[in-house]
Specification:
CATH superfamily: NADH Oxidase
Largest sheet: 4 strands, antiparallel
Distance between the termini: 25 Å
Strand order of the largest sheet: 1-2-4-3
Order of helices and strands: HHEHHEHHHEHEH
CATH architecture: 3-Layer(aba) Sandwich
Mean pLDDT: 98
Radius of gyration: 18 Å
CATH topology: NADH Oxidase
Number of domains: 1
Length: 198
């Protein structure tokens, strides 16, 4: 029987990166293709993924990354997740021509701008889970980060069509990273507290 379990058992959120390590282009391209293939409600794909490898831009982003400054500076790459800033742009780019366009027009659009953007955000979080799982499988260390100044990130990245939600640092853990499982064992609730079988 094939099992994915060992990859998640060994995964942890990296707190300190090796600044000398750089992911190769093929790995980044594969991760982007994995993100492209991520599922979303009604195949809406309401996201934009920005890969940051430029040290100059990383330094700018680090200044507005709150307690995540060192991670941003020392990781190999950042992937910044964004969603459409305006409902109209999303509809023009993604909705028109969808096989389930009628569903969107009848069920989602009437809820209004804020509700639709919240719905888009939830789709982006699905793709985040896919990315983190893929990184675990590919032996790439990762850190999902909501602790950033989203408005400042959006301004620095310079694409006002999209609003930043969160970022993921990618790279290789520093050997002294105290969050490694050998130093800080994984803590999870017992399955009986988290699930039910009916």
């Amino acid at each position: 029987m094939k099992t994915f379990l060992p990859f998640l058992q060994k995964r942890y959120t990296t707190k300190s990166y090796d600044p000398s390590y750089c992911l190769d282009t093929e790995m980044i391209e594969e991760l982007l293709e994995i993100l492209r293939l991520s599922p979303s409600s009604i195949n809406s794909q309401p996201w934009h993924f920005t890969v940051v490898e430029s040290e100059t831009i990383k330094q700018e982003l680090a200044k507005v990354s709150q307690h995540n400054t060192e991670k941003v500076l020392n990781c190999s790459h950042l992937i910044v997740f964004s969603i459409y800033n305006k409902m109209a742009d999303f509809e023009a780019d993604r909705v028109n021509g969808l096989t389930v366009e009628a569903y969107y027009r009848e069920r989602l659009a009437p809820l209004g701008e804020e509700a639709v953007k919240n719905w888009m955000s939830r789709q982006a979080y699905i793709s985040l889970g896919v990315l983190l799982s893929a990184c675990a499988y590919m032996d790439i260390d990762s850190t999902p980060m909501e602790g950033i100044d989203k408005e400042a990130y959006t301004e620095i990245l310079g694409n006002d069509k999209f609003s930043v939600l969160f970022a993921v640092a990618l790279g290789k853990r520093d050997k002294e990273d105290k969050n490694q499982l050998e130093f800080t064992p994984k803590k999870r609730k017992d399955l009986s507290e988290l699930s039910s079988l009916l």
